Amino acid sequence: MMEINYQEIYDCIEPTLTSDWKKISLYCAFWGTSCETKYYITTQTGEVIDCLQLPEFDAVFEAISAINQLFFDSRKDNESALWFVISIVIDNTGSFSSHFDYSNDLNEQEDYFDLWKKQYIYEDNNNG
């Protein structure tokens, strides 16, 4: 079983959070030896902010680099259960959820990512 330290992931992102954050939605996808990691912050008013739009770009870059390293280490230590996409949602009450996608059918990356955003970012915003 893969060990992922969710507190460590939060600690990487925490310096970039807005004061009114409600939820973090993190996406990391692996293709071969490279990966793409992004996260979105949903505020108390429902505004969704792409991490790359945050004012502290250096802190965001540092957070993404550290998270990528955590994921690379986790995958390296457990080659028998390699996931291709991990989705993590953390809310401001300390609750979190994660989902691992083990399918290797990510050929339509843009379609996959659009579906991911609907499921992990915008689902709660539609419910008030």
How would you classify the helix and strand content by structural class?
alpha+beta
Radius of gyration: 14 Å
First CA to last CA: what distance? 36 Å
Share of residues in strands: 25-35%
In a nutshell, what does this entry contain?
The chain has 128 residues and is an alpha+beta fold. It has helices at 6-13, 57-76, 109-120, and strands at 21-31, 34-43, 48-50, 85-91, 96-101.
Account of the 3D structure:
- By secondary structure, the chain is of the alpha+beta class.
- The chain has one domain: BH3703-like domains (Murine Class I Major Histocompatibility Complex, H2-DB, Chain A, domain 1, 2-Layer Sandwich).
- The protein is 31% helix and 29% strand.
- The protein has helices spanning 6-13, 57-76, 109-120, and strands spanning 21-31, 34-43, 48-50, 85-91, 96-101.
- β1 and β2 form a beta hairpin.
- The longest helix is centred in the middle third of the chain and has 20 residues, at 57-76.
- It starts with 5 loop residues before the first helix and ends in an 8-residue tail after the last helix.
